Amino acid sequence: MTPMLTPTTLAVVDASPTPLWSTQLVSWTVIGAIVLIVLGMVACIYRLLRGPHLADRALAVDTLAVQLIGLVLLLMIHWQTPWFIDGILVLSLLGFAGTVAMAQYIGRPHLRPGREDGAVTRSAGNEA
User: Fold this and answer.
1) What's residue 38's pLDDT?
2) How many CB atoms lie under 10 A from the CB of residue 78?
3) In the chain, which stretches have pLDDT less than 70?
4) Domains of the chain, residue spans
5) Calpha distance 44→71 (Å, rounded)
6) At what angle do helices 21-50 and 54-79 cross, to 10 degrees?
7) pLDDT at 116
8) How deeply is 34 buried, as exposed, middle or buried, from its count of CB atoms within 10 A (0-12, 13-18, 19+)?
9) 3-state secondary structure of 80
10) How many CB atoms sit inside 10 A of residue 70's CB?
């Protein structure tokens, strides 16, 4: 005969089992990556504000856009939600459009200071 199980004979099962070591490893890795990306974003903001050349600032904006996308991806993993995928796509398109716009601006000829007639001159490296 098999013993009959009643609610008093059942063992109490913990509702929140201990997470596996791999889950904890992923969690700590994601948190570490978030910290590193934020530090990289601070460095890019510094380069954006203090960059000596326009190309440095353009590169800082492009890198900042890529890091922002990575930060949102890591936050999605950390919070275990797929809600931000549309936002990531929008950020990707805006980052690409901003990079193309900056490249167009850098590539066009600029007015040199000191010319009274307003003529456009090219610098020595931009000979076409």
Assistant:
1) 98
2) 14
3) 1-17, 111-128
4) 25-108
5) 14
6) 160
7) 61
8) middle
9) coil
10) 17
